[in-house]
Amino acid sequence: MPCRACLLLPGVLLALVLFDLSAASPLADSTATTESSCNFGMAKGDPTRSCMVPVPQGCVVAFLPGTTRPWSNISKGGATTCRFNDKETDWKTRITGTCGKCTSFQCTARFGVMFDCSQRK
């Protein structure tokens, strides 16, 4: 005979997920309307590698709500170090992400930036 609690568990979990989603509210200070990113992969021993995040026409970099910091993120996998390149990034027309040498079997990188396109015509 199946466990009654086991039969109810999927429904309870779904209700909890839906409750959490309904409690989420949009960020009031945010006007970001789109995200742009660049990605790449590297094999072990590959040297420094870079990519440019495209800036959508008519858009400006959005700021993290309540700050003056660009709304951006870096996701990486493997043994490498990644950052936005200060010398090649002006946060207006050029945004470049750079990772150092890959020292694990493989490495991946994703550089994402949120943009405010509310003034685009």
Structure description:
17% of the residues lie in helices and 33% in strands. It has 1 helix and 7 strands, in the order αβββββββ. The strands form 2 sheets. Strands 1, 3, 4 and 7 form a 4-stranded antiparallel sheet that branches.
Nutshell version of this structure?
The chain has 121 residues and is an alpha+beta fold.
Secondary structure blueprint with pairings:
Elements: H1 4-23, E1 34-43, E2 49-52, E3 60-61, E4 72-77, E5 82-84, E6 96-99, E7 106-116
Antiparallel strand pairs: 1-7, 2-6, 3-7, 4-7, 5-6
* DSSP strand content: 25-35%
Shape: elongated
Uncertain stretches of 5 or more adjacent residues: 5-28
Largest sheet: 4 strands, antiparallel
Radius of gyration: 20 Å
Write out key terms for the chains shown.
121 residues, alpha+beta, four-stranded antiparallel β-sheet, three-stranded antiparallel β-sheet, 33% strand
